[in-house]
Design a protein that fits this description.
With about 375 residues, the chain is mainly α. It has helices at about 15-25, 30-50, 55-70, 70-80, 85-100, 110-120, 125-130, 135-150, 155-160, 190-200, 200-215, 220-230, 230-245, 250-265, 270-275, 280-290, 295-310, 315-320, 325-330, 340-355.
């Protein structure tokens, strides 16, 4: 593989790549020769970071440091949609390798590139999220985001709490006070996921939801605090945009995720607040009558949280009691073909008994 680097030092790649990436944004666009050179440089970077024969760990460390110094990570995230398909795949690999790389003599437990973007250049994370705005960049950016979210709570915090607009400075993790953060405005990058999931092309929507789910389930205490502080805005968006989506896939996945969130012990305070709402119960009961059985099934697992709650709020009690006769006629035959699902059948029987045994409506 050494012939690939014949005309250029093995680690002298970051600055020319930065210059060529910058030219992609110029009008008129650069000539094909410049794009070909950029493609070649990105391919070389990937091979070097992979540990191509003849490349020492010191040379890899030098390249990573050069990419940080030249701010190449931000420019790659910002420009990835402008690149040809194979180069977008190369960028995905470059991000993955750079964010995992630790020098042999490093003092920090975190890879230097991760420490850099979390504390000094969070715009890289925000730009990777904004990759969902274009189908060309959605999936490579999504893969990189999920890799980071699995390991770093700080990445999740930046996505949740940043409210910068495009070309503005983003919020670093050092500026986030989890215990005393203001209520969100609904204009940050996190809130864009609702639009990307609902309005994106199928492959964009599916990938965005996968990242959204990772964000909401991986770092439980972080998410619980966030939902408690932003409860009204989050569930207004969630129920309106996702649970009532016109897309069957989005609707079903969203209802299933909602049930998981409510039943997670870490979200106990969120769950108790959610099941106090009569409006949330009405939304849930509508799902039980959906034409599609899997939507009914996922809706049942949210409905059971309302009924099983021993401390029902007056609005929830009134709705259940006003509909008691209809529910007692409806539930025995509800998804009656799921006879092999013993847990479901037991839970349905339990709910029927709970509804039968409810006392008078509160005055």
């Amino acid at each position: 593989m050494a012939f690939l680097f014949r005309n250029k030092s093995k680690t002298d790649l970051a600055k020319p790549a930065k210059d060529l990436l910058s030219r992609l944004w110029q009008s008129p666009p650069p000539p094909q020769k410049a794009e070909d050179e950029l493609v070649r440089l990105l391919s070389q970077m990937k091979l070097l970071l992979q540990g191509t024969q003849g490349c020492s760990p010191e040379q890899v460390a030098h390249l990573v440091n050069s990419m940080i110094q030249e701010d190449l990570l931000y420019l790659l995230a910002h420009s990835i949609h402008l690149l040809p398909f194979e180069s977008r795949k190369d960028c995905q690999s470059i991000f993955s390798y750079v964010f995992r790389f630790k020098p042999a003599n490093g003092l920090s437990p975190d890879p230097p590139a991760m420490s850099y973007i979390i504390h000094q250049r969070p715009e890289v994370i925000v730009e990777l999220c904004r990759g969902y705005a274009r189908k060309e960049s959605a999936m490579p950016c999504g893969v990189v985001l999920r890799e980071m979210l699995k390991q770093y709570e700080e990445v999740a915090a930046i996505i949740l709490y940043d409210e910068s607009h495009e070309n503005e400075r983003a919020t670093s993790v050092d500026e986030i006070d989890l215990r005393d953060s203001p209520v969100q405005s609904g204009h940050g990058v996190f809130w864009s996921f609702f639009s990307w999931i609902e309005n994106g092309a199928f492959e964009v929507s599916t990938d965005a939801f996968t990242t959204f789910r990772e964000l909401l389930t991986r770092h439980k205490q972080l998410l619980a605090l966030y939902l408690e502080r932003n409860f009204d805005l989050f569930f207004q968006q969630y129920n309106t945009v996702l649970v009532q989506s016109s897309s069957y896939v989005t609707k079903r996945q969203s209802i299933k995720l909602l049930g998981e969130l409510l039943l997670d012990r870490a979200n106990y305070n969120v769950m108790t607040q959610y099941v106090e709402s009569g409006d949330h119960l009405k939304t849930c009961m509508t799902l039980l009558k959906d034409d599609r059985k899997m939507v009914q099934y996922e809706g049942f697992h949210v409905f059971k949280v309302f009924v099983a709650n021993p401390h029902k709020s007056p609005p929830v009690q009134r709705i259940l009691l006003n509909n008691r006769d209809r529910l007692l006629r409806f539930l025995p035959s509800f998804l009656e073909d799921r006879t092999e699902d013993e847990q479901f059948m037991d839970e349905k029987s339990f709910l029927i008994r709970q509804i039968e045994g409810m006392g008078p409506a509160p005055s």
